[in-house]
Amino acid sequence: MYLSTRGRTPRIEASKAIHRGLAADGGLFVPEKLPSFPAALWEKLPSMSYCQLAKQILGLYLDDYSEAEIAKAVDAAYGGGHFDTEAVAPLVNLGEGRHVLELWHGPTAAFKDMALQILPYLLTTAIAKSGSDKEVVILVATSGDTGKAALAGFADVPGTRIIVFYPKDGVSAVQKQQMVTTTGTNTAVVAVDGNFDDCQRGVKTIFGDRDFGKVLDEKGFVFSSANSINWGRLLPQIVYYFWSYGQLLVTGSIQKGENIDIVVPTGNFGNILAAYYAKEMGLPVAKLVCASNKNKVLTDVLRSGVYDRKRDFYRTSSPSMDILVSSNFERFLFALSGGDGELVAKALGQLDTEGSYRIPAAVFQKMREIMAGYACDEADTAATIRGCYEKEHYLLDTHTAVAVKALADYRRDSGSKNRAVIASTANPYKFNAAVYTALLGAEKARGLDEFQLSEALAAYTGVPIHRGLEGLREKKVLHTKSVAKEDMAAAVGAILGV
Ligand SMILES: *Cc1c(COP(=O)(O)O)cnc(C)c1O
Question: How many CA atoms does the CB half-sphere of 263 hold within 13 Å?
């Protein structure tokens, strides 16, 4: 059963938690109790396929889904050729006891695919269980990566429609082209004359509009959300941490039971939280290293015990981590406070009204034992990309580079000799301009558009362009709708024909 982190709503089944997304008291759904990774599975772990492992782990959490329902979802998401390798998430040895877990082999070249490829199946199953026969309309406001990953996941999934709003001038050329060339009979992509905040506000307004909701209900539609606070997006991410441990065993890099460190480039705190849940389930993890860019709210809270969002916001070369309020940190606070909903509600209330809160000393103490925070500035990000390419001939994206630097700093400070798994969240071609500039300098990049940069990067490194980004320029543009920010609801109505 699932509880709200603010402790003011009744327990509900997994399918309802996934269906609702957010709890009615404003909190996030968390499992009442974390299951242990079954002893019998440790023996089998090295020989299990990604799909086999995913079925086992999802089964531990989704009590009201049948084995067949889980199997169908897992096979469709990870077994159907949507990922460009059977391993789904290959583990690459970088030397010096460092292993890169490549989470970007899905259709859109970023790690969001790991969850958004399976979420549509978990969600449509949940809705069917609720007895509803309505068509689900997923509304997404995106600043880039989430929109395309959600489109790729929901395209042509029966019983669903997906509508993505993006800021007209707020996404990169590659990100825009990825979205507007999306196929699928149930997809719609709309440019908004405004910024990301306008898009997000517009979507929230549509969600909250009861009259509009009623009209849609009568026409057979119901809204849902695919953003990262949904439990259905977090759960699939636990799988690949166990998977990486299995791969380390297969290659003889570790002995059974040996502790590892895990480093995660962090934004909304979802990915690293999944690693924490894996550790609580019994994965032998010595330390979780939380890596941030110049927006280092998380580094600071892990050092001072004060979460303080009152600070300047920076646009960096790792934009998916440019975030000051990490929603999923609330789940971590709930877990480490022993499930104290009152404490969480009070802290998050303070964050809202005063812009900061202090974590109680006993909770903070536990937090520091589990997690260390490190930040990496723009110059070090670029230097890490260059150094890693020159030394290991391995091409890092900007987000993964932040993590590689954080690990080096953590090892220097702690003396840890553990094997480390580094979560790699994007393919380097997704952030080609910054990667190219890091390798060859800004002068060489001048005058090249994003598509030419990809080709130049491929020519220089010999690393093939990710198949999800290949031939992007030639793809047919299928979505040209553009609206004023006041007209987003009208656009939804027009798309759905209501
Ligand atoms: C979303 C994203 C992140 C941040 O992940 P969180 O789960 O929000 O911490 C990091 N890197 C890339 C490339 C992303 O798309």
Answer: 29
Supply the pTM of this predicted model: 0.93
- Letter for the amino acid at 65? Y
CA atoms within 13 A on the CB side of 270: 23
Token code pair at residue 101: 């877990």
d(CA 476, CA 191): 17
E strand or H helix at 344: helix 341-353
Q: How far is the CA of 39 from the centre of ligand 1 (A)?
A: 31
CA 399 – CA 378 distance, rounded (Å): 11
Q: How far is the CA of 197 from the centre of ligand 1 (A)?
A: 18
The Cα 118–Cα 121 span in angstroms is: 6
Residue 489, Cβ density class (10 Å: 0-12 exposed, 13-18 middle, ≥19 buried):
middle
**CB atoms closer than 10 angstroms to residue 16:** 16
Write out the two tokens for 407: 């690990």
Give residue 425 CA to ligand 1 midpoint distance, Å.
Answer: 6
Task: Give the amino acid at 196.
Answer: F
Mutate to test the pocket of ligand 1, among 237, 268, 273 (most ligand atoms within 8 A of CB): 268
Q: Can you tell me whether residue 482 is helix, strand or coil?
A: strand
User: Under DSSP, is residue 37 helix (H, G, I), strand (E, B) or coil?
Assistant: coil
Alpha-carbon gap, residue 249 to 466, rounded angstroms: 28
Residue 357: CB partners within 8 Å, gap ≥ 6? 306, 307, 346, 347, 348, 350, 351
List strand residue ranges (DSSP E) for 254-412, in order.
260-265, 285-292, 306-308, 356-358, 371-375
Per-10-residue mean pLDDT of the chain, 498 residues long, equals 94 93 88 97 96 98 98 95 95 98 96 96 91 89 87 91 90 88 96 85 83 92 84 97 98 97 95 98 98 97 97 90 89 98 96 95 98 98 98 97 98 98 96 95 92 94 93 92 96 95
Mutational pocket test of ligand 1: of 143, 238, 320, the residue with most ligand atoms within 8 Å of the beta carbon: 320
E strands in 356-425: 356-358, 371-375, 419-424
